[in-house]
Write a structure and sequence with these properties.
This is DUF2147 domain-containing protein. About 15% of the residues lie in helices and about 50% in strands. A hairpin with a 4-residue loop joins strand 1 and strand 2. The longest helix is centred in the N-terminal third of the chain and has 23 residues.
Length: about 130
Amino acid sequence: MRQLLIGRRAFGAAVLAVLGAAMSGTAVRADDVAGTWLRETGASKVKFAPCGGAVCGTLVWLKPGVETPAKLGQKIFFDMKPTGPDAWAGSAFNPEDGKTYTGKMNLSGGTLTTQGCAMGGLICKSATWTRAN
């Protein structure tokens, strides 16, 4: 009986170890979102990279002829920290009105959805991005 109990404990510990290893493979990492992303409108590209323990997104390309007050090299997303699997929260700068909003990002496969919200999340605007090569 004692050997059976020890065997069950060892089995339970092994199962927990396997589950822990599997879950660590799905941990949120900044490099999951790292790279250059094209906005669904095709008007701009933002490069996401780790920055000071968070993730930041910098404007790296604007479609020729697009009228915008945004400047190349301008940080659009900053202080984006993990909030769960493939999710981050921080701040989003809107170059059109010069204001900074609460920002969120969610990664699903090859699609990144960003969102900027005002008034405690009552008013939000989203954008969809795909990886650019």
